[in-house]
């Protein structure tokens, strides 16, 4: 309703009444049914009770009526309030048609004039609704209401309601501090102290707060430590801050002073909540995040805190806080720029107004952004469209995507964005002009960056390597060759980047990689197809293919191969024959296929015609040679067949030897074999002999005849059956075929089937057995990979030729060719190394004469390799174990294959060293990839000869006995044996067995231990001696180096001692890296061997320097060279030459890993003879120094005229010659014995002598190179016994028994002096005060 224009006071009543009839009210005052305003009256329980008492009718309705009353005089307000307070409710009113009860009448709003404005304020317990506070102007209030509730004063009365409303009850959580000590009983609610505190405090609180409008009660809820913190709840309507402070003062006044309440410690926590919102809802790393804190409390005292970091957030480069009051609301905004994962956590917004605190919390999670893209790409510059793409792994509202590039070349494109799939693609084209050969292989980095609406950025890089499509240049000249000739095709690429290079035929068959090599250069590459022996199968077109990703560069070349027999395929008859000088002999050459050839027989310069004869598939060219047509009687002539094809290429057959003899010497005659003299031995191809031939498939091999009396007798039969000979020819053709790897599986299958059928022929023919071994040897060089089926066929073939029926044939074959068994074993090992099982189960094979087991190394489930083999027919067994720790060093997917042979031990050659046969299974273990780390394998054999002597673990070394093979014990030793079985440990893989040895000591035997003790104790003693020598030289250096000769001699002695000291120290290092004949670190072993080799050589070269210096001083007496020049030459010779020899030896052998021995850290002997790089220089130096010593002695005994060096120089020369004369034989003798220990079968005495002499070299140098020098003795005595030495110098008496053992007057020294032409009789030199000196031979 509108207020009167002239008003001094306006009073608003609220009247609550109940009626049983509808009230007709025409006033402008607002009438609010209780049912519509229930919330405002829900707290007035007393009024409802009065209402219920006034009317019991359930149909009665309650209404709230606002009544406005204007007063001219403001003093009337108090009278009205007094009157209303005096009323007794309910008031009953009776109307004619209804009953009305007035429940309550209260003053709610009072409007007053304030200057030119009207201020309308609410009475205590009432407040303006929030919407009025927001949409009307508020006036300045002196009595501020409780924060969080409505304003109490407006400018102008609202034209229509609502007016001031009754405030609802609130509960304030409060606390106050008592400055008294905290007691634990306050934590116990049933304790007397707790009840006392609670009662007293609640009494004081009631007295203080009961004056608050709408006060309902106060309750103490608990106590906390920190002095004593009292927490309590206050129930009331919203009071003003001023009333709260006054009530707190009354509480302090009402409480007993013994509680010592702190009147400044009151705090209140309202249930009013702060609204805290976060934008965006889903936060990604890099976003700009806003946290907004809103509250009805009008205060700018707002703080922000990150709970995890426990620090209050301040304005900074990444954090900004803005706080303001807007529309009756306090707003604080925290902005986090470029948010990180570390910013995640709980954030707290706290608002403080006076004693009231308001707090709100919000936890935010930060999701990392991951952009997925290919890390690397390879692109061919062929103008094909290429796309680089990237995708986001999180669904984010990206607003844009940017692409950037960085590199030496600029290849631009266009971006395509697929928002639905959260991906972006960058498409470009590039041709050869944009990436010429100079930029081939150039890398450009493309960066894809996603940007979100809130600032988050995610990027990923893709390295794109641009490569020009290869331009291939192939050999331009036409290739036209004949069979048997070689040819090569070179294919050159102008780019060096490729994934694969291969050659194939026009039929699409890949050429085996053994026929071509490929090299990469900085600006290109080349592949060379080289064929040493061409066959007709090589005729056709060949394609050189460089593949890079899906781009292929191809160059073609035609090869024409003209027919021409290969020399090995030309069969001649006879191989050798005797021809009477007056007789004749048929000679012929045969080939398997006919061709357009011109054939002649050549005898020296004589050319003879040939008649052609075709018989089935064989073509022969014949000539009847008449001996009387030549004048070469009693002479041997060589006859050749000369084949010339259509392109004028030719080939010569193997020679036929014709021995022309007088007819009277011939006793043996045969129409097929020919004639011969008594005792004559000739060979014939089996197909041209009396051996039966199969139609269309001739036998192979050679048969040997001997003329005995008048008959030819068969001496040796190496014939090969026709069927096996045919298989051998196919094998020889296969290894020359360009597609040999594709033909191999079929051939191995046919071979297995054929050999199984031909077992009888093999068991009766050494030639056939040898042919099968040659076939396996040829085929084992072909495959790079062997599958399970191929390996089964190989082992089936091996099972037949190792059968017991064939063992006698093996014995005959071994008498003729000793390496056939080694050749077979090597072939089988090559097949096993090429075995690749792939995803198929590990292959297992078991036959009577061979068993095989295998395992594929899988890093995901690695286990110990254990295999056991049992041959019940042979009563032999064995097992193999490789620990899991050693298998870990192998490459993943490597195949470990073990095969066992019960009969192979009977046919392998005898042990080269010991002449003993193997007495067990032969087990061979191979790995498909090279072993680069230390390896150890354990094998257990059944010992079939438990009492036959000492057992040795051996392996078959294919390099022994001129590569024919033999047993070797290097790297193997017996771990244990109980008579029935023997366990061997080896540090390498190949074929293993055991030997029985009578004289070779086991490493753990008494003799072996004795050698170790001698070596280690002796080396320690030698090191001490050498160290003593160096110490002595340091002490006496100034006293004994007064002339050039003396200076150089002692320089040489010092370097000899130092070199040997360092070499012996490295010997100790070797002992540390070897454990029971097992090298723990291969690299350390190589380093130790190099330094031992170098410093041992240095010892000898410094001795050579000493000898050459002696020779120089005696021969070139009048020639003077400066000390620096002599020293430079000495160091170049002493260290330069050993360094050159050591480095060359290492470079020549280490790339093949044959620099050191297999189980010892010293120069290799078996494989490369690298030990000679030490032995030869050392022995040469020994011989040279001995020669120099002899020359010096001769020169001194018979001096030439003018050869009179000064006394000191001559003394120095004597000492040098003595040192060389003693040390050189000793060192030379030491290494002479050492060299004998290298060879197999060396007597153990040589090992012991070498060990003793070697370890005492240090002592020899100390005694004969240092202490034997008289000047050194004098210098030592003068330094350490000066007074005694001086008294002896003052006397002329003889030295007697006190003479040093190495002084020139001692008996030992006199003998050496006599050897060099001087006596040691002491004499007094004039002018020297009786000082003793040796007669002209004082030491240097």
Automatic annotation (TrEMBL):
Record keywords, A-Z: Cell membrane, Disulfide bond, Glycoprotein, Membrane, Signal, Transmembrane, Transmembrane helix
Stored InterPro entries: ADGRF3/5_N (IPR057400), Adhesion_GPCR (IPR051587), GAIN_B (IPR057244), GAIN_dom_sf (IPR046338), GPCR_2-like_7TM (IPR017981), GPCR_2_Ig-hepta-like_rcpt (IPR008078), GPCR_2_secretin-like (IPR000832), GPCR_2_secretin-like_CS (IPR017983)
Domain GAIN-B: 841-1002
An example molecular function term from Gene Ontology annotations: G protein-coupled receptor activity
Any single biological process term in GO: energy reserve metabolic process
Occurrences of domain SEA (ranges): 166-273
Organism superkingdom: Eukaryota
One of the record's GO cellular component terms: plasma membrane
Residue ranges occupied by any G-protein coupled receptors family 2 profile domain in the UniProt entry: 1011-1269
Range of residues in the leader sequence: 1-21
Membrane topology annotation: Multi-pass membrane protein
Ranges annotated as spanning the membrane: 1013-1040, 1052-1073, 1093-1116, 1128-1150, 1170-1193, 1213-1233, 1245-1270
Location in the cell: Cell membrane
Transmembrane helix in keyword set: yes
Family: Belongs to the G-protein coupled receptor 2 family. Adhesion G-protein coupled receptor (ADGR) subfamily.
Protein's name according to its UniProt entry: Adhesion G protein-coupled receptor F5
Annotated organism of origin: Callithrix jacchus
Gene this chain is encoded by: ADGRF5
